[in-house]
Amino acid sequence: MPERKRINILRQLLEPEIIELIRQKNWHALKDVLSFWPAPDIADLISSLKEPDVVILFRLLPRHLQSEVFAEFDPDTQLTLIRNLTDEQVKALMAELAPDDRTELFEDLPPELIQRALNLLSPEDRRETLMSLGFPENSVGRLLTPDYVSVRSHWTVRQALEHIRKNGVDAETINTVYVVDEQNRLLDDIPLRKLILASPEEKIEALMDTQVISAEATVDQEEAARIMQRYDLLALPVVNSEGILLGIVTIDDILDIVREEQTEDITKISGIHPGRIDLTFITKLREVPLRLLYRSRVVWLLALLFMDLITGGIIQGFSELLARYVVLVTFLPVLVDTAGNAGSQSATLVIRALAVGTVRMRDWIYLLGKEILLAAALGLTMGLGISVMGVIRGGIRIAPVVVLAMVINVIVGSAVGISLPFIFTKLKRDPATASTPLITTIADIFGTAIYLAIAWLLLGKPA
Predict the structure, then answer these.
(1) Who has the most CB within 10 Å: 281, 295, 358, 391?
(2) Are residues 59 and 122 in the same domain?
(3) Are 322 and 315 within 8 A, CB to CB?
């Protein structure tokens, strides 16, 4: 039986016992029970406790396990511990944290705690942390770790392997070894397997192909994720503008970023502003405070409410026409909903394409033209679908109004859906901000105006 599966079964069996130990506050017995649990599972358990119990149980963990568990906590739990631990405990904890985890912690600390935490770092750790914090927010420089193994091109394979044995213990990964010059400029990356299979007296430069893939520290973390995905990298070297190797970003950090970005896109597409709730909003919905849920949703709902009032104003402007041809009202929901649905489909496709990098800003006009042709075909199909009902409900005079409005509305809705993500990208905003509720509301406004204007033109102004 796989080790992970065995641990999960043991967890389920021990859960009632653990709950009872927490109720009795028998911390030392609980410490023994948790000694073989993985760090993420311990973090989940501790996070579910009340504040005093969180601090007590965390303090009882072995020091080597504390840093692993701490890195798995959400920012609020980390902040709770920093406020309640002594300076010595915080100092020991941060010394054990990986550089990228330490940088992430400092990003979430309030100003009054940043100075305290910086003063507790060793001079070397303080320099690393300050360097990482100097990179732009959401840049790959914020994720890098300086714990990598590098060798020189003039070394022999024997020298390189001896260096790896001596210095690779604390490295984030040794699957890939980086070749640098005297100024620490990145020259190449060599798989460890290639070194092991080479002749001991062969020079490193003989193994180089100089086709190394790297990213500048200022590159957006999403772009770094795309690079790693495209080239199937387990670690991405990060350099400055002069090509000097600053550190590496490993696949586990990139996977966390991808998950966060996808969660953010999901919330934005749904018209929800996650703010500082981050992943907790989706993954731990039961624990999110009611006030944060309210704040995340009320802004867009209010904005869309006022936009919907425009639709009401348009309907009021055609009240005489609607009073004369009441049957027109029965087609209004299906017309505007179809336009909104078509726009949402277009937006979803282009938002995802922009996110994975297969579409660029320069493709806007081409995709808009292509979408209009597609929308015309879809609109004609929808128009034929509704034409029969138009004749049945409204007769031969109403049917052309409904069919023509359907075709135009689908075209307009699709054009809005495909254009908004590009507009937000041009304004340097996340294209996912072009949310489904926003597109649907805009389609409602245009769809209502188009439908009633066509009816006014074809049926004539009421006497």
Answers:
(1) 281
(2) yes
(3) yes
Q: What is the pLDDT of residues 161-193, one digit of tens each?
A: 999 998 888 777 888 999 999 888 999 999 999
SS3 237: strand
Computed from CA positions of residues 336, 295, 222, 226, in that sequence, does the dihedral angle turn out positive or negative?
A: negative
Nearest to 140 by CA among 243, 222, 25, 26: 222
Q: Assess whether 231 and 309 both reside in one domain.
A: no
**Which helix (H) or strand (E) covers residue 109, if one does?**
none
On whether both 352 and 407 belong to a single domain, the answer is yes
Q: Is 180 helix (H, G, I), strand (E, B) or coil?
A: strand
Rg (CA), the chain: 30
If asked whether residues 114 and 28 sit together in one domain, one would say: yes
Identify the domain boundary among 236, 255, 274: 255
Q: Which residues pair with 151 in a beta bridge?
A: 179
Q: Is residue 277 part of a domain?
A: no
Measured at the CA of 120, the angle between CA 117 and CA 125, to 5 degrees, comes to 95
* pLDDT tens, position by position, 304-329: 788 888 888 888 888 888 888 888 88
Q: Is residue 247 part of a domain?
A: yes
The DSSP bridge partners found for residue 114 are none
Question: How many independent structural domains does the chain possess?
Answer: 3
156 has a pLDDT exceeding 90: yes
Any bridge partners for residue 180, and if so which? Answer: 152, 186
Residue type, 144: L
Strands (E), 135-258: 150-152, 176-180, 186-191, 215-216, 235-239, 245-250
Domain with residue 177: its CATH number is 3.10.580.10
> Is the same domain home to 120 and 167?
no
At 99, list the tokens.
């550089």
- Please give the residue that has the higher pLDDT: either 155 or 136: 155
Tokens of 173: 């990964």
Host domain of residue 411:
285-459
Residue 436: CATH number of its domain:
1.10.357.20
Give residue 378's Cα distance to chain centre: 32
